[in-house]
Each structure stands twice: as C-alpha cells, then as structure tokens.
Amino acid sequence: MSAQATRNIERQPLLVGEVIELARDFVSQDFAKREGFWGAYLTGSINRMDPDTAFPAYLDVDIRVVLASAVRDEVEALQYQGYLLDCNITPSGDYQSSEAILPLPGKACHFVGNHILLDSRERLGRLQEDVSAAFGRRQWVARRVASSLASARAALGALKSATDTVGTLHALGEFLLYACASISIAHLAPPTHRRALVNLRSITQTHAASALHAHALAALGSDQLETQETRHFLQHCIDAFDRGLAVKRQPVPFNWMLHPCLRSYLQDGALELIDEGAHREAIFWLLRFFHIAIAAIRQDGTPQDKLLHGNHLMRFLAALGLESTAALQTRILLCESLVAEIDAYTQGVIATSPLLVD
C-alpha cells in the first residue's frame, strides 16, 4: 500500500469569480457550439462562495447544460485549465415552464438565484426568476420532498435485492444520498453529495433533531469509526481507484467517476472532511468511489488485483457492520425506520416552517 494520503497544495488557486469566468469560457467554446444549445448555469457549492475568495483547486465546478438534442441526463467530467468541471447535460424538455421544474429536486434546488453562465435563447433567465419566486411555496416543497423520499425508498428496495457487495454499497449510498437530500429540501437548502452528512448534522442540530443525524450515521455504519480508521480506508479507496483506472477496459456503472481528473477530488475532498472532524461523515464520500473502482477491478483486473482489493473491500464492509447477510437484514430494518422518521420530520417542517409560504 502506498503512503498515507495528504492534502495537495501544490499551486495557488484562482478566486471563485475567476473560476466562474473560466467555466463561462469553457461553455462558450464547447457546448455553445453544439446542436440545440439553450444555455448553461452553475450548480453546487460554488454558488454559495464569496467570489473574492480562493476556490479550492481540488473541488469540482458543477455546470448544468441544457440541450434540446439531449435525450436523458448525462455527466461529462473533464479538466479545463487545471480545474475539474462536472457537466450535467440535461434535455430542454424540463425547462419549458417553471411548473415543469419546481417539482424536480435535482433541478429546482439549483435553479434559484442568478447563476446563469450563458442563455443563448434568452429563456433560462426569465424561467429562473419564475422558479425563484415560487420556490418556497409549500406545495412545491412538498412535491420535491416526496420525490426525494420516493428515490430513497427505491434505493432501499435495491438494497433489499442486492446480490453482491458492490450492489449493496451502491444501494446504501443512494439511499443515504436521497434521505439526506429530503431534509435539505424541506429546509430550502440545496442537496449535496460529498457533504451530505455534514450538512445533515448542521441542519438537525439547528432544529433540535440531532437524532436523525445519529441514525443516518448508524445506517451508514460509520458511527463508531475513529479518525485513523477513516484515513486507512481512504488510502484503500485511493489504491483501488488507481488500480481500477489502470485496468479498466470496458465501462462500469457511473463510469464517469473513474476518471483521472477526479482523483484529487476523492482524496482532498475526503481529507477536508477529516480535518474538520467529520471523519465518520467522510465515509459516505468514499462509498461510491470504492464500489465503482472495485467493479472495474472485478471486471478487468488480474486475479492478484481481485484478491488484494477484494480483501480491502471486505475489511471496509466489516468496519461498517455489513459482513454478513444477517447484519445486512438488520441494517435494512434500520434504514426503513430512518426513512419513516425523515418522512414524519419533513412533513412537520413543511407544515410549520416560517420560511415557506402558501
């Protein structure tokens, strides 16, 4: 195993405002020339950053690109001038009206405020104003929460029917992603992936519901892990990522995440959380990268690769308390209880929050 992971601080990052202009330049040079281009806007954490502060070079820049020619949501991850751009290409059909967008948690929650990069047909700007005006209405918040909870329950169903360890980790990660998102959505906060459990802790502490965060950590299985254990599993995850990238010959599920430009995001993004004291929450960030890398190794790796990294995966599962069928069944019951708690909690928030309007 290679030396323990450390933060990458090799170069001076650009300011947030400069990175936004860099993203605009990329969209103008690339996507704006594609057939059916409507426009593009920023999503993710960059929208909540001060434009005059430094943008951490290991973070990604999330861009939603609206194309009339797109038939489904797809992701392209790439590096541009040394920065990681995650471009989510989405069909224009969802952008015909504010009523079409407002029920969609993955789109509406990132389509408030003025974060448009390009608006070639002059539609997105007006549409964003309409979505922002109605975003806090209870009827739309309730529909977005219901959609997210439905996705959590679908993931729970996949967890029950998973036939191997990779499928188990994927389904558990999806379940927690949508479970955490449901609470964020109820509080008008944008859902996130890497910091999902950190944000959950912040929200539930503020609203005297810390038990939900504790139960989410228990559902993940990281509630008893120590900092050094998380660092240990991060290194195993990085090793699997590197080997999976080296041996992969055919695509695997979520293939775009097994890309060289995402390595520092995996490593430094996890170390940021660990350095904040969120080592148990950081395990959630490792989950998806680990199972994608292992899937590539199982598909195209050597027998030695499969044995080494398979053993690492089994140690990871054991640390999360998922080493047996009986343990998995107990975890499923815990997840069922958690989604019921979140359902009840979010219904209360929707009914009583002063941030929402009728």
Question: Can you tell me about this structure?
Answer:
This protein is of the alpha+beta class and 358 residues long. The protein has 2 domains: 16-135, Beta Polymerase, domain 2 (2-Layer Sandwich); 140-343, no CATH class. Helix content is 56%, strand content 10%. It is built from 13 helices and 5 strands. The chain has helices spanning 16-29, 98-101, 105-108, 124-134, 138-161, 165-186, 196-206, 210-220, 227-247, 263-275, 279-300, 303-319, 325-352; strands spanning 37-43, 60-67, 74-80, 83-91, 116-119. It has a 5-stranded mixed beta sheet, with helices on one face. α5 packs antiparallel against α6 (165-186) and α5 (138-161) runs antiparallel to α13.
Give a brief rundown of this model.
By secondary structure, the protein is of the alpha+beta class. Helix content is 56%, strand content 10%.
Provide mean pLDDT, rounded.
93
Number of helices: 13
Largest sheet: 5 strands, mixed
Q: How far apart are the termini?
A: 57 Å
Helix content: 55-70%
- Order of adjacent strands in the largest pleated sheet: 3-4-2-1-5
Summing up helix and strand content along with how strands pair, one would put the structural category as alpha+beta
The proportion of strand residues reads: 5-15%
Number of strands: 5
Topology (elements, then pairings):
Elements: H1 16-29, E1 37-43, E2 60-67, E3 74-80, E4 83-91, H2 98-101, H3 105-108, E5 116-119, H4 124-134, H5 138-161, H6 165-186, H7 196-206, H8 210-220, H9 227-247, H10 263-275, H11 279-300, H12 303-319, H13 325-352
Helix pairs in contact: 5-6, 5-13, 6-7, 6-11, 6-13, 7-8, 8-13, 9-10, 9-11, 9-12, 10-11, 11-12
